[in-house]
Design brief:
alpha+beta
Length: about 375
């Protein structure tokens, strides 16, 4: 096999994996049998109409497994359909046969490379088989192939689109992990460096003190230096570049920077309730990054927004961040890469981040707007 064909043959199933079943599957399975029987009763001129109706109704359940077993279901449907065509000596003329195209779409949308190649072979064989029984005009042949090719092209197009989005989401997750690793490294390295300096100073004056203290200080120095070396090695693997970042790690004190807005944009207000000094730097940096992304999204996508309100509450359970705007609520909003990054950052710290339409009147207006909520638990914080 040539290289492109070999690559297609070895390609895995589509990513992300499909849902096993959705509500549309049950609608199809419930609606198609009555439609097949209705068409058979209304078209007495179709040869073997009731026989074909029974076959088509019996094959309807293949739609339930078209995502998890796309090639098997297509093989069953086209194999039985072709076999019946050879037995009765004619091609099915019921329009309900068109639901076979859903199985063709499923193979190219969800199947592996082997399934796609095998499915294309089956469909081609099933399309050309009736020509052995009765002659067909070139127009009919080209028309049938055009419908099949169009269906397959749609499956490939949606497969490529979903794969591209999945890769972009994974890239955003990796970027969030990389950025969080940098911030954690910078924070911990600061404290460990201070420990190493204190240990070195203690070793310098330990001549006037017991030997045990000197040895303890040397152990502290060695452990601190070893920790720094291991952390630098870990972050070096995560970073694409070893160029140092000179900017300090942002925290809760930097939330005030979000209030600066461009002319004509919404007003941003920030409020912090609770003991901000008790929040570790890593948690504070995560809260700042999530609030920054939420405010940026509100400025860009909240149509007609005049106010963006960011509130941070710190209590015994942890930190809760709410960012609300008074813009127009979109009826159906697809999660973007920014929301995925916020959720990933919160999950890495054991919390959660959710976004959705808010409650009307939260900010004193009549519009519900959009609300981003992040909760970071206190588990593991120093007391």
């Amino acid at each position: 096999m040539t290289s492109p064909v070999r690559a297609l043959w070895r390609s895995p199933a589509a990513t992300p994996p499909p849902p096993r079943r959705v509500w549309r599957d049950w609608v199809l399975v419930g609606v198609l049998p009555p439609l097949v029987l209705l068409e058979a009763s209304l078209r007495p001129e179709v040869p073997w109409r009731w026989g074909w109706a029974v076959v088509l109704v019996a094959l309807v359940p293949t739609l339930l497994w078209r995502r998890t077993r796309p090639f098997t279901m297509l093989a069953v449907a086209f194999g039985i359909g072709t076999l019946v065509s050879l037995v009765v000596g004619g091609d099915p003329q019921l329009y309900a046969t068109a639901y076979f195209l859903v199985l063709v779409y499923a193979v190219l949308r969800w199947g592996s490379g082997r399934a796609m190649v095998g499915g294309a072979t089956l469909v081609l064989a099933g399309t050309l088989a009736p020509l052995l029984l009765e002659p067909s005009t070139p127009v009919d042949l080209v028309g049938g192939l055009a419908v099949v090719v169009t269906t397959g092209s749609l499956g490939l197009a949606f497969r490529w689109r979903a794969g591209a989005r999945a890769r972009e989401l994974e890239r955003m997750r990796l970027l969030e992990r990389e950025q969080l690793a940098r911030e954690l490294h910078d924070t911990v390295a600061h404290h460990v460096s201070a420990i190493a300096i204190q240990a070195q100073a203690g070793a310098a004056v330990a001549a006037q003190r017991p030997d045990a203290a000197t040895e303890a200080l040397r152990v502290i120095e060695g452990e601190a230096s070893r920790t720094l070396d291991e952390m630098r090695a870990m972050v070096r693997v995560l970073r694409r570049s070893d160029a140092p970042e000179l900017a300090p790690v942002p925290g809760l004190d930097d939330l005030g920077r979000l209030t600066s807005s461009s002319p004509g944009g919404p007003v941003v207000s920030v409020a912090i309730e609770g003991d901000a000094a008790s929040v570790p730097p890593a948690i504070g940096a995560a809260v700042f990054r999530i609030a920054q992304e939420a405010v940026t999204n509100a400025r860009r996508h909240a149509h007609g927004a005049t106010l963006v309100d960011a509130r941070v509450s710190i209590d015994a359970d942890g930190v809760r961040l709410e960012v609300r705007d008074d813009g127009e609520t979109v009826a159906s909003a697809r999660p973007g890469y920014g929301l995925t990054g916020m959720a990933e950052r919160a999950a890495l710290l054991g919390g959660r981040c959710e976004a959705g339409p808010g409650d009307a009147g939260d900010l004193g207006g009549g519009r519900a707007g959009w609300t981003v909520t992040a909760v970071l638990p206190r588990t593991g914080w120093p007391t």
